[in-house]
Write a structure and sequence with these properties.
The protein is of the alpha/beta class and 294 residues long. It contains ten helices and eleven strands.
Length: 294
């Protein structure tokens, strides 16, 4: 048995905010306040909670953000018109469209309509292409947060076997690129597993690092890991809590069963979630810095 190190996103994200202070001050001395426009369509409760968390952090750091709340039945054309206005509004350095969008909206069409220079989520095809060639403009926030956690914990991926479980464009695909880039602290050998993978255990048992992003509560258990594996848990799943409580949040990894097996792991909540917001702040600051370049 080994002692599993807790990789706290709360602590690391605060270090990120502290490190951004000088850059923010420099921008403000040049009369630039990093500013983010958030487009929220519909009444998804999880999206609303997440947007409020973002607003709270931006307010605390004295940065500017505005949420454009649109009704569930807003048309795609209306969203596109709003994005066109925001693309041309110099007040906003970053634009974020909160996902998921209602089913009648073509998500890809919306993401493609954001000015790639303001696409702080890194989902525009131009930014996806830059990332895939190893020269990113904006790195998607959750994958970027994962890399930051590993860096702060001095966990190098060099010559390590990284198993990513999940192939979404938001987490799985971009983190599979980042972990395998020929760069300091990366340079891992990355395997991307998904719903079509036979016997995922065969891959996780040989992994040095497991990144779980499949949205299945407690699906990664200790008996699927070799001793000393690092577990990065991206899952945020709502399950019945019992004890008189309606629900609680758990990750894709079974926290109790990986104790003493994993060398280090991110908790849920308090792991990658806070890092995602911290990276959104950092990307917005970067966008404000880019705006000075004309």
């Amino acid at each position: 048995m080994i002692e599993t190190q807790v990789l706290s996103g709360k602590i690391i994200s605060q270090n990120i905010y502290d490190s951004l202070a000088l850059r923010i001050t420099t921008l403000k001395n040049n009369t630039i306040t990093p500013s983010l426009a958030v487009v929220l369509v519909g009444n998804n409760p999880a999206s609303a909670v997440y947007v409020r968390s973002k607003e709270k952090i931006f307010s605390h750091l004295k940065l500017h953000t505005k949420t454009f709340q649109l009704d569930q039945d807003t048309t795609e054309l209306e969203i596109l018109q709003l994005l066109d206005n925001l693309n041309n509004d110099q007040q906003y350095h970053g634009i974020l469209v909160q996902l998921p969008l209602p089913e009648h909206i073509d998500t890809q069409n919306i993401l493609c309509s954001i000015d790639p220079r303001k696409d702080v989520d890194g989902f525009h095809p131009e930014n996806v292409g830059l990332l895939s060639t190893g020269h990113p403009r904006y790195i998607p926030c959750t994958p970027k947060g994962i890399i930051k956690v590993l860096e702060y914990a001095n966990i190098s991926l060099h010559q390590k076997h990284v198993v990513v479980i999940g192939r979404s464009n938001i987490v799985g695909r971009p983190i599979s690129i980042l972990t395998s880039l020929k760069k300091e602290n990366s340079n891992g050998t990355t395997t991307l597993c998904h719903s079509g993978t036979l016997d995922i255990n065969n891959f996780t048992m040989h992994a040095d690092v497991v990144i779980a992003a499949i949205g299945q509560p407690k699906s990664i258990t200790g008996d699927m890991l070799k001793s000393g594996t690092v577990v990065i848990d991206v899952g945020i799943n709502k399950v019945h809590a019992g004890n008189g409580k309606s629900h609680k949040l758990v990750g894709d990894a079974d926290w109790d069963s990986i104790q003493g097996i994993a060398a280090a792991a991110t908790p849920v909540p308090g792991g990658i979630g806070p890092m995602t917001i911290a990276m959104l702040v950092e990307n917005t600051v970067e966008a404000a810095e880019y705006s000075q370049q004309g």
